[in-house]
Design a protein that fits this description.
There is one protein chain. With 212 residues, this protein is mainly β. It has helices spanning 46-56, 113-118, 176-179, and strands spanning 3-6, 12-24, 28-31, 34-40, 62-73, 79-92, 97-101, 105-110, 123-137, 142-146, 152-154, 159-172, 188-200. The chain contains three helices and 13 strands.
Length: 212
């Protein structure tokens, strides 16, 4: 299995001995040894995945990188965070997914109002199985634990991913005063309950929620 390691906080080094990884198209910045690059359709999920992603609007352009040596990946100098999966599922926006073990399965999942408030549509990408994934964030992400005793509420614009057995619900503080320009400044939040991890970046992307 390929070995993921961070070289600094903005470059991912993947050591391979005949292994393969799936990476964001065009994210290779250097490699040594021998590598082969192949563009994959539908986020690596074949024709069915391509159709699904076009229908859901959760587009993801991925390449397979296979070889012997080390390949380095980066994306617009964004921060990179490693995620270890042990048979569980990671929910992450396609634009935040940099690289995964080739053996991890990707798919799409309905997000409902959370995706709408983020401005990312109603679906998100899932990564499932056992292995490593690398996700990117605007600034160093913090990993916040959610437990039965300590639920967590986050801003939709700062959320980037979550894993574990978590239930999410949408909270709105929109009132008549909001539309009069006297809202509290945080009109929408996402509340996570259960047991798992939530990845939050120290930056808020432009969202529908941020305009209210």
């Amino acid at each position: 299995m390929a070995t993921f390691r961070l070289q600094g906080s903005r470059v991912l080094a993947v050591d391979m001995t005949g292994d393969a990884v799936k990476a964001k198209n065009g994210s290779m910045v250097a490699y040594d040894g021998q590598m082969a690059f192949k563009k994959m359709t539908g986020g690596g999920e074949g024709i069915r995945g391509m159709v699904t992603r076009r229908v859901t609007g959760e587009q993801m352009t991925v390449m397979e990188v296979k070889g012997h040596g080390t390949c380095w990946f980066a994306d617009r100098a964004t921060e990179i965070n490693l995620v270890q999966l042990h048979g569980d599922k990671l929910y992450v926006e396609a634009s935040n997914l940099l690289c995964t073990d080739a053996g991890l399965r990707t798919g799409t999942s309905f997000t409902g109002l959370r995706g709408a408030t983020q401005g990312n549509g109603l679906f998100t990408t899932t990564v499932e199985g056992s292995g490593q994934a690398a996700i990117i964030s605007d600034g160093p992400a913090v990993v916040l634990r959610v437990s039965q005793q300590y639920p967590l509420t986050v801003d939709p614009g700062a959320y980037i991913a979550h894993q574990g057995n978590l239930h999410q619900s949408f909270q709105s503080g929109v009132t008549f005063r909001t539309f009069m320009g006297e809202g509290g400044g945080e009109a929408f939040q996402i509340r996570f309950e259960g047991d798992g991890l939530v990845y939050v970046q120290p930056s808020e992307r432009a969202t529908i929620a941020g305009d209210v």
